[in-house]
Amino acid sequence: MSEQKERMLRGELYRDNDPVLVAERRHCQRLVDEFNATRSGEDEERQRILTELLGGIGAGSWIMPRLQCDYGYLIRLGDNSFINYDAILMDCAPITIGNDVSIGPRAQLLTALHPIEDHELRRQRWETAAPITIGDNAWLGGGVIVCPGVTIGANTVVGAGSVVTRDLPERVLAAGNPCRVIRNL
């Protein structure tokens, strides 16, 4: 394992131009391209590709094409969960999706972070990443963006188009930009 990959996995500053990380992203992209090229009704082929691509996919879970991700192996999807069309799962850190989760079309789960105050580090292309966790039976509406380091509690519903910048507790309805709790469920 390269030093930069170790740094990425520890959540430290790293450079994504590391040859090991570049090779892993290319391997991931080949699998994503295969998945996205499947035709309607090729469910077994889609599952075969997802099993090879992802760090884990639970029984009864499925993803609709188009899917985009960086590494694949940092994504774990629980049982009976669904990700709709055009998902972007930027998995520079772990993305853990629980059981019975529904994620609407064009959702984005973004783990990557870039230096805000240190302009020189940003210019040199250093970055970090923070994990995203989505609890069991959560529902994310279409176009939801989940920012790095966010945890969404079990049984929480996030309204369409929301930008989730901080953790959401269990059993709430939340929406907006930035996303905020509207009421308990």
Q: Which descriptor suits the 3D outline?
A: globular
Main beta-sheet strand count, sense and barrel state: 7 strands, mixed
Beta-strand content bin: 25-35%
Order of helices and strands: HEHHEEEEEEEEEEHEEEEEEEEE
User: Structural class, from secondary structure content?
Assistant: alpha/beta
Radius of gyration: 16 Å
Question: What secondary-structure arrangement, pairings included, does this model have?
Answer:
Elements: H1 3-10, E1 14-15, H2 19-36, H3 43-53, E2 56-57, E3 62-63, E4 67-69, E5 75-77, E6 82-83, E7 87-90, E8 95-97, E9 102-103, E10 108-110, E11 112-113, H4 119-123, E12 126-129, E13 132-134, E14 139-140, E15 145-146, E16 151-152, E17 157-158, E18 163-164, E19 172-176, E20 179-184
Parallel strand pairs: 2-5, 3-6, 4-7, 5-8, 6-9, 7-10, 8-13, 9-14, 10-15, 13-16, 14-17, 15-18, 17-19
Antiparallel strand pairs: 1-12, 11-12, 19-20
Question: Which properties best describe this structure?
Answer:
single chain, about 180 residues, alpha/beta, seven-stranded mixed beta sheet, five-stranded parallel beta sheet, 20 strands
Describe, in plain words, how this protein is organized in 3D.
This protein is an alpha/beta fold and 185 residues long. Helices cover 23% and strands 30% of the residues. A hairpin with a 2-residue loop joins strand 19 (172-176) and strand 20. Helix 2 (19-36) runs antiparallel to helix 3 (43-53). The chain starts with a helix and ends with a strand.
